[in-house]
Backbone:
């Protein structure tokens, strides 16, 4: 059932990423249905059966990886996904964290998922979208080397190459 290869690459100083399980459905819904956290996301209805079915379906979809972010105490603190593979590029999304996580935990979760996509899965570029009103996330992605390459009515469309990300992220890692 596991889709994750080289799980040892998903462990950092502050957090660990592990593959989603059906038992995570309620936790995922608690994040996705939180009014504040979901402000810039596609609307999700709180339906536990549907969420469990989504997780089951995930295991049948090629080229998609769904992670739960754990703190060093093993407590679930967030979610993150790799999906929408297009040639040598992957999309990141569903990055949600509980209240009170440290900047180190937040940054390291992003760093580990990108390194996994680049170094384990072999992709060369990341593409993703961010809602235009999501100022904090826009500032973060600019800080880590991403560039806006287009837009829709709702979103900015972004890309970052492995080299562009490395150039910025390695400097940030030194500050953690």
Residues:
């Amino acid at each position: 059932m596991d889709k994750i290869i080289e799980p040892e690459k998903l462990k950092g100083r502050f957090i660990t990423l592990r593959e989603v399980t059906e038992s995570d459905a309620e936790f995922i819904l608690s994040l996705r249905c939180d009014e504040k956290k979901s402000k810039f996301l596609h609307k999700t209805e709180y339906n536990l059966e549907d969420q469990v079915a989504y997780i089951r379906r995930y295991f049948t979809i090629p080229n998609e990886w769904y992670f739960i972010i754990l703190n060093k105490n093993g407590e679930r603190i967030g979610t993150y996904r790799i999906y929408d593979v297009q040639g040598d590029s992957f999309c990141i999304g569903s990055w949600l964290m509980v209240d009170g996580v440290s900047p180190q935990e937040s940054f390291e979760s992003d760093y580990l998922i990108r390194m996994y996509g680049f170094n384990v899965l072999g992709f060369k570029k990341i593409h993703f979208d961010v809602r235009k009103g999501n100022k904090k996330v826009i500032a973060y992605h600019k800080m880590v080397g991403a560039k806006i390459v287009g837009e829709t009515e709702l979103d900015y469309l972004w890309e970052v190459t492995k080299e562009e990300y490395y150039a910025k992220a390695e400097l940030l890692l030194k500050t953690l």
About this structure: The first strand starts at residue 15 and ends at 19. The domain at 9-175 is CATH 3.40.630.30 (Aminopeptidase). The chain has a mean pLDDT of 92.
